[in-house]
Specification:
alpha/beta; Rossmann fold; seven-stranded mixed sheet; two-stranded antiparallel sheet; 6 helices; 9 strands; globular; binds S-adenosylmethionine
Length: 246
């Protein structure tokens, strides 16, 4: 049996319109079968995930895999997270549109693009200098102008812009960094994978005055959060924690 790849039409090239229609249908399938089927219900979020062209955030040779149910490599040992994990973490932030958000781990910029469409202002910090310009360019090309990408160690947060209504950490930490708890606004929500280098638990923290209520949102595997309040370079766990699965 011969199976044609979905991006190929036997005997001819696919037109731009056909390609766009195909990509939109793959996005729709991703939203229905990977995200809604697992219980994500936030209507605004689902709409944004239908719109943002995830294939523009992966390396050119992986465009055909952009809508699959897994993380993908983006270079320098880093990954773009699994679509469901992006949706789950974003839904946990309960964004309504007026928030100031901090993301730690810009990576490809895909999560930042989604946050940009759902919140008022987004600051996204990336430790790997080479990833930031590409993320900025992708956001610019999509007309998303409320996201600022900053190069630095996000494990210390961003004191100059604190407090934040929502903080999302897209790398796995040994513990919740204290500066992030301090930079959370009253009523604010922080979502972060916490655990060993090979396996973490997604923890949602909601600040209520001086109280920090925590909820366990299930297992996950992320690349490590390196830095002052994350893993130290010396205990860097090689490449085995190199995916963001859900
Ligand atoms: N959110 C990204 C996306 O949508 O493509 C995926 C992030 S990837 C799973 C984790 C990212 O966290 C990597 O790009 C890594 O370089 C970054 N990172 C790790 N430690 C960091 C730190 N202390 N500060 C900022 N970024 C960090």
């Amino acid at each position: 049996m011969f199976i044609h790849h979905p991006f190929e039409v036997p005997g001819r090239l696919r037109s731009m319109d056909e390609t766009e229609a195909l990509l939109a249908s793959l996005r729709e399938k991703m939203v229905r079968e990977q995200i809604m089927a697992r219980g994500v219900r936030d209507v605004r979020l689902l709409e944004v995930m239908r719109e943002i062209p995830r294939h523009l955030f992966v390396p050119p040779d992986l465009v055909r895999e952009a809508y699959q149910d897994n993380p993908l490599p983006i270079g320098v040992g880093q990954t773009i997270s699994q679509p469901y994990m992006v949706a789950l973490m974003t839904e946990l932030l309960a964004l309504r549109g007026g928030e100031k958000v901090l993301e730690i781990g810009t990576g490809s910029g895909y999560q930042a693009a989604i946050l940009g469409r759902l919140a008022r202002r987004v600051f996204s910090i990336e430790k790997q200098e080479s990833l930031a310009p590409r993320a900025r360019e992708r956001l610019r090309s999509l007309g998303i102008d409320n996201v600022e990408v900053i190069v630095g160690d996000g494990s210390a947060g961003l004191p100059r812009e604190a407090p934040f209504d929502a903080i999302i950490v897209t790398a796995g930490a040994p513990d919740i960094p204290q500066p992030l708890l301090e930079q959370l606004a009253d009523g604010g929500r922080l979502v972060i994978p916490v655990g060993s280098s090979g396996m973490q638990t997604l923890i949602l923290t909601i600040r209520e005055g001086d109280d920090y209520r925590q909820e366990d949102k299930g297992g996950c595997v992320f690349v490590p959060l390196l830095g002052k309040h994350g893993w130290k370079w010396s205990d860097r766990p090689g490449t085995r924690g190199g995916t963001c699965a859900g």
